[in-house]
Amino acid sequence: MARTKDPAVRTLLIERAAQMLRAREPITLRSLVAGTGVSTMAVYTYFGSMDGLWKALRQEGFTRLAAKFAPVPASDDPVADLAGLIAAYVGNALEHPDLYRVMFDASFDLEDLKAADATLDFLVQAARRGQEAGRFRADIVPLDLAIQSWAAAHGLVSLVANGPLSAETLEHVPILLTALYVNAGDDPDRCRRSVAAGWARPA
Fold first, then answer.
1. Distance, CA of 145 to CA of 184 (rounded, Å)
2. CA spacing 20 to 30 A to 163: which of 1, 11, 76, 172?
3. Within 10 Å of residue 166's Cβ, how many Cβ atoms?
4. Coil, strand, or helix at residue 5?
C-alpha cells in the first residue's frame, strides 16, 4: 500500500527553494534538502524531478497571487476595484520577489495553466463591470484592458522587486492606470479619484 503524501513536506521544499533563491544560493538536489530533515527522494516523490520542483515554484507564485486577489472587494466602483487588484499584484510581487521572478520563467511549464489563467480573470471581470457601468467605452475588450493593466504594473514592479529602481518608482503605476482608463473612456477627474481610492486599499 502506497504511503500517503504529506502536503507539509511539499510546502517545506517549496519554501526552502524560495529561501535559497532569495539568498542567491545554487539549488541542487542535495542543497535543497540539507537541514530539512527529508531525503533527496522526497523531491522525486513530490515533484518527480528538479524540473517538477521549478514547475511547482512557478505555480506557487500564481497561487499566492490568487490569494492576494481574492479578498479585493467588488464594490460599486469597478475602476477602483481594478486599481485595487493592481495594487494587490504589486504587493504580492514585493512580498515574494523570488517567486515573482520564477512565475514568468517560461522555460518551465506550469502545473496547472488554468489556475494561473484564473488570476487574470480577476482583472477581466473588474474591467467588464467597468464597461457595464458605463465607465469604459462599449468597444473596449475587457480582456485587452486587463492585460494592459497587468502589463503597466508588471513593467514597473519588475524594476523594483528584482531590479535597480527604488520603491518610489511605483508612484508611476496609478498615473499609468489613470491614463489607460481615461483612454478607455472614463471621465478624467472621476478616474483619478477611483484609481487613487483603489491604489490606497490595503494590499
1. 8
2. 11
3. 8
4. coil
**Of 119, 122, 135, the residue nearest 77 (C-alpha):** 135
Overall residue count recorded for the chain in this entry: 203
User: What confidence tens digit (pLDDT) does each residue in 4-55 have?
Assistant: 678 899 989 998 998 888 788 888 999 999 989 999 999 999 999 998 998 8
Question: How many other CB atoms sit within 10 Å of the CB of residue 80?
Answer: 24
- Residue 89 CB neighbour total at 10 angstroms: 25
Alpha-carbon distances of 149 from 55, 71, 79, rounded to whole Å? 26, 19, 11
- What is the tens place of the pLDDT at every residue in 110-148? 888 888 889 999 999 999 999 999 999 999 999 999 999
Query: Do residues 61 and 125 lie in contact, with contact meaning Cβ atoms separated by under 8 Å?
Result: no
Q: Exposed (0-12), middle (13-18) or buried (19+): which is 107, by Cβ within 10 Å?
A: exposed
Q: Where are the alpha helices (DSSP H) in the chain?
A: 7-22, 29-33, 41-47, 50-69, 78-95, 97-103, 113-132, 142-161, 172-183, 188-199
Model pTM?
Answer: 0.87
